[in-house]
Amino acid sequence: MANRIEGVTENLLAYAMQEFLANGYTGASLRTIAANAGTTPRSVYTRYKDKEGLFAALVSENADTLRSMFSRYMNDYEVRPVEEQKKLFHDEAFEQEYQGYIDHILDYIYENQNAFKLLICKSEGTRFAGFVDEIVEIDEQHTLRYIEHMGNDVFTSGRATPQLIHLLCSSYVHGFFECIRHDMEKDEAKNYISQLRTFFACGWDHLFRA
Question: Do residue 103 and residue 27 come from a single domain?
């Protein structure tokens, strides 16, 4: 195996980030990335196999981490006693805890803002294009289990259907990531998501009323 020139990998990643942010995955040019990094397309194929491999090198760790953060919090909530879960929208301690969870997620997103811009806005044509919908699925599964565990009559009463639950989860999660789509500053994003949560909490509270 040929020796790799020091610094080429770092340059490739830096210029790949620029190229993907500017042109998206489908519009990005490996030739341009390689030329800007002072090397050849062969260096990309040697290190990353193909263009998607290079894209994955920029986003896969962040995607896995954020997915795990969503899942871990929801799993932690799900194992609590039923009576504690029923306080979902009416407990100050829970609200403070949930705010901490949201802040933790936003801190991570904004610490890796360029990677999440790629994931949310520039990943069409890659296996990461469905990243937000993967988060939706996690949220939907936990919501359905919440309904089951609570013995809530939201379905039998006709107040909602599983399809509506899917649409609501999708609307919230896609809405959550609008802060990245619209390049909001972090403080602006926190305020926006607080307003979004308030709106959805009222709706969920209405649907789940005993």
Answer: no
Dig out the tokens for 69 from the structure.
């953060």
For residue 65, give the nearest of 1, 22, 115, 114 by alpha carbon.
Answer: 115
Pair (45, 147) in one structural domain: no
CA distance 32 to 149: 54
CB count in 10 Å sphere of residue 33 = 25
pTM for this structure? 0.89
Cβ neighbours for 186, distance < 8 A, ≥ 6 positions apart:
106, 110
User: Which amino acid does the sequence have at 69?
Assistant: M
| Amino acid present at 136 | V
Closest CA relative to residue 30, chosen from 16, 17, 11:
16
* Type of residue at 40: T
Give tens-digit pLDDT for 179-210. Answer: 999 999 999 999 999 999 999 989 998 998 85
Which CATH number is 27's domain given? 1.10.10.60
Cα angle 92-111-114, degrees, rounded to a multiple of 5: 125
Alpha-carbon distance of 137 to 168, in angstroms, equals 11
Q: Are 17 and 114 in contact (CB under 8 A)?
A: yes
